[in-house]
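Box 4.2: Ligand-aware structure prediction
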Amino acid sequence: MGYPHTPHPRETRVLSEHFGVAEARSLDGWKKRGGYQALQQALGMEPTAIQQVVKDSGLRGRGGAGFPTGLKWSFMKLGDGKPHYLCCNADESEPGTFKDREIMRWTPHALIEGCAIGAYAIGAENCYIYIRGEFTEPLDVMERACAEARAAGIIGPNAMGSGKTVNVWVHKGAGAYICGEETALMNSIEGKRGNPRIKPPFPAVAGLFGLPTTINNVETLTAVPHILNRGAAWYKQMARPDNPKSTGTKLWSVCGNIARPGNYEVQMGFPFGEFLQDVCGGAPHGRKIKAVIPGGSSVPIITWEEAESAVMDYEGMVAANTMLGSAGCIVIDDAQSMPRQIARLARFYAHESCAQCTQCREGTAWTTKILERIVAGDGTAEDFDTLLSIADNMTGKTICVLSDSCATPVVSGLQRFRHEFEALITRTTVHAVPVLVG
Ligand SMILES: Cc1cc2nc3c(=O)[nH]c(=O)nc-3n(C[C@H](O)[C@H](O)[C@H](O)COP(=O)(O)O)c2cc1C
Ligand code: SF4
């Protein structure tokens, strides 16, 4: 994986500042680095005042959708007499994304602090951190850190002597991509099969155990203590001067055909071409980058030409015909077969579909079969129309967006690399033995 790498001078290391520093994992080590000062401050504030600071900072959810965090918190009706819950989404199963794992491995107390502040700000006494089942090391680290924080009275009843109860619990997932979808995650915590729920009702009304719930990503919550410590204005100025809608720093996981893979933290608005070439070293072995999937496997594939001039923030990625998503950046060089890479992604989604919706259950399976047939050299010219028609049926018509996520690489890949599919169908090209990525 090549991580922790030597930090690049063009990175802005806020969340990743202590990655690779073993001492920062312990409670004492974290306190030495200013840990839990933000929680102490937060427990002396009104929950709505914390919500306002987070709103002012412009922080948006780092789990994929980019929804404004302070606004999401304000949907929780304070004083309604019901128990509230915060769920921290640490499922991180999106191909290409591996940033939350590093936050948990190296700075577990930063996440606990963010969870405790978030819980208090939405009127919750309990936060569950739902960790992907395969993440054995992060799970151990988080459990140990929670035990330490509980023993020291930082979390629990009378948290930090405030008289307020804030608990943080670790919950181990069982290894299903779909459990990262927020309502499937809640079902899984409740001990049910991890199937997404039909919305409405939205989680802020009826979430975990049928009670008001907020779900936030690991990176989102970890940013919160920094915002309280250093102020909303400090966070907000880390943005393009002409785009105040994307603020702060962002962790980018970079993998595939790239010379220096790893997690990099840069300010919103960083130039994507320079990031891939200068910061990450470009394609290895003198090859050229052919395609990039910037935001995890669910976002549109773009060409190097589109990526080179793109800007790394939510709006910049949309302008480049893709999305920021979870910033799990998969780099594909000119030695790779795009049909083969796209077929591989489709197989992933077919495997992970929970099968509740016909369009998704059938669509992901048919898409995979057709793509694998094309890759095997048995495709037909009609396959293009069939693939696009299935993709259309899979988009915007299901309970959750896993179905759309399978259609996205197919449609964007066919739009940009149709010639590679055609070459396989007409057998004019024999591809080099592909190197698998992602
Ligand atoms: C199939 C699927 C998988 C998802 N997996 C994750 C995940 O692993 N981690 C995550 O934070 N969000 C994931 N999400 C998004 C969550 O549903 C949710 O929007 C997010 O956790 C909200 O946190 P945020 O507002 O802090 O971004 C997934 C969504 C879908 C549809
Ligand atoms: S879209 Fe797919 S994964 Fe999502 S609920 Fe429907 S069948 Fe399940």
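In the box above, the bound molecule is flavin mononucleotide. The longest helix spans residues 402-426.
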